[in-house]
Amino acid sequence: MKHVRDYIAVRLESLSAIFRSEFVAQQTSKAPTIPLQPGLAPLELAKLIRARYYADRQWARDRRSVWSARSSLLQAFMFLLSLLAIVFLGIATLDGFAIAGFICTAAATAVAALESFFNWRSRWIAADAALAQWHDLEETLSLYVASRTEQDLDVDFLLQFDEQRRSVWTELNQIWLAERKGPGPAGSSAP
Questions:
Q1: Residue 190 has what DSSP assignment?
Q2: What Rg value do the Cα atoms of the chain yield, rounded?
Q3: Strand, coil or helix: what is 187?
Q4: Residues whose CB is less than 8 angstroms from the CB of residue 119 and which lie 6 or more positions away in sequence, other chains included
Q5: Nearest one of 178, 183, 63 to 130, comparing CA atoms
Q6: Other CB atoms within 10 Å distance of the CB of residue 173
Q7: What is the DSSP annotation of 88-150?
Q8: Residue 133 · residue 24 · CB < 8 Å
Q9: What is the pTM of this model?
Q10: Which of 51, 73, 112, 189 has the most CB atoms within 10 Å of its CB?
């Protein structure tokens, strides 16, 4: 039994260390570690923009899997509670089952409210759309660079790829905020 406890303690400590290192790596308040480099050659600029696409897609992949799992788990839990409520209310010849049914109905309502509060499904779908756009932009960038010599690469055209990457972020944020706000009162439009 002691071996099991020691094993669990070691696993928990290693998971805790991984979580701490990933959490620290996700902090945005740290100063950038990549120095600014003025006057990059067009090919180096294209590589920098491409690296940003990779980082953005990795962020979206990581988040969408978490949001997808949370949304699916919450939907399954809500379905189970609703099912239990129907069963308990259907065999409500005893007072205990009727009470349990009403409790499950109330819990299902509360869980349904959680989904709209956390908005995981909306974020999951928006992350999928952003991923598709980033893949498309990166393919276009790769084709542009591959079809020209390094001297023929246009810096202004390359910078448009980064602007499009940032516009996908802006769109992702606006979608999430619009979904988060939800519809306004009947007959009015939310700002």
A1: -
A2: 25
A3: coil
A4: 176, 179, 180
A5: 63
A6: 12
A7: HHHTTTSHHHHHHHHHHHHHHHHHHHHHHHH-HHHHHHHHHHHHHHHHHHHHHHHHHHHTS-G
A8: no
A9: 0.51
A10: 112
